[in-house]
Amino acid sequence: MPCDLKKNRSVPGKGLEPVIGGAPVLLILGSFPGRISLFYKQYYANPHNQFWQVIEALTGIGRHLPYERRIERLMKSRIALWDVISTCGREGSADQSIRGASFNPLADLLTSYPTIRVVAFNGAAASRYASGRHLPDHIMPVTLPSTSSANTRFTLAEKTERWGVLGKFLDPAQ
User: Fold this and answer.
1) Which CATH class is domain 26-165?
2) Which of 37, 149, 150, 159 would you label with 97, given CA atoms 20 to 30 Å apart?
3) Spatial CA neighbour of 54 closest among 122, 117, 126, 150
4) Could you give the CA distance from residue 155 to residue 133 in angstroms, rounded to a whole number?
5) pLDDT tens for residues 16-63?
6) pTM, entire model
7) 59-68: which pairs have CB atoms within 8 A and are 24 or more residues apart?
C-alpha cells in the first residue's frame, strides 16, 4: 500500500459519499468505512472484507473488476451503497471503537429515491446505529451478517446464503 496505514491508526472523521444510480431498489448500509476504504475512497476496499465476494455470488459482478466497473454494474443492478454514520472518531476499523458518531440523512435519501424498497444492513452494528431512525412504511429493513473478516461467526458460504434473501429484490435482467 502506498501509505503506512499501520502507523496512522486513527481514522479520518468523514465517511464516503453514497453510491447511487437513477432508480435503486436496494440500499445496502454499512456502519462506517474502515481505514483502508477511507484511504482509497472505495466501499469495502479491505481485501479481507467479503462484501465483493458475496455480491459476486448474488449478482455476477466480478469482485476482481476495477472498482469503477463494479460500481457501474452495482448501479445498473439497482443497488445503492452508503453508511449509517457520516462522521465519527475511531481508532482502527472496529465498529466497537466508534465514538462521537454523527449520522447520514437517511430519511432525505429515501425521500429523494422513492424506488428504494429494501434497506439491507451489513451487520448488526449498522442496524443498531440506524435504530430509531425512521424508515418509511414501504421500506423493508433486513439485517444481514457483516461481511467483515472480523465476523467469524459465519463462514463465507453462510454469509452468502443469508445475503441470498436479497436475490428476490434484484432484477435478473441486469
Assistant:
1) alpha beta
2) 159
3) 122
4) 30
5) 999 999 999 999 999 899 889 999 999 999 999 999 999 999 999 999
6) 0.88
7) 59/170, 59/174, 67/40, 67/42
